[in-house]
Specification:
By secondary structure, the chain is mainly α. About 55% of the residues lie in helices and about 0% in strands.
């Protein structure tokens, strides 16, 4: 430090008892007072051995088992017949409704990528962008559906 100063503030006398006979002696202090600010030797860490993981085939099999209810849901929708009578027919609102459904599919795909590849913070970052997109597009779609049903009730 260029503008530092050194000033004696007082004097201190210590009356310490003698060290026990078998006590180890502290190492001799460095003569150079700036020696403690020099680079120290590198610290080597010892990490524990990572836990064993199951085979990739076992993990993929359990992932498939978790997807079975979703596949059953899709098959049930096809058997029941999906009700598309409220889906917008005009090009603008139909585009927003399609984008909304594509956004929901993107969120589901993001969940799968989280299980397979991504970490939590990356997933949350992507999910925040998708969430803003879905709020905008979903609001437009629901506004159109609300206006359509209001017109049908008054007519």
């Amino acid at each position: 430090m260029e503008n530092s100063f050194l000033r004696a503030l007082g004097q201190l006398e210590l009356d310490l008892p003698e060290a026990p006979e078998k006590a180890p002696r502290p190492p001799a202090q460095a003569v150079d007072p700036l020696a403690k600010f020099r680079p120290q030797k590198e610290i080597e860490h010892i990490f524990r051995v990572p836990e064993k993981r199951p085979l990739q085939e076992v993990s993929l099999a359990f992932t498939g088992l978790t997807l079975l209810p979703f596949i059953g849901f899709l098959i049930g929708l096809m058997r029941l017949g999906v009700n598309l009578k409220n889906f917008p027919s005009l090009p603008g609102p139909a585009a927003f409704a399609s984008l909304f459904h594509a956004g929901i599919a993107a969120v589901l795909l993001l969940y799968v990528l989280f299980w397979v590849k991504l970490d939590l913070f990356t997933t949350l970052k992507y999910l925040s962008f998708l969430g803003v997109f879905l709020v905008f597009v979903g609001h437009r779609t629901l506004s159109h559906l609300s206006n359509t049903t209001a017109k049908q009730k008054t007519a």
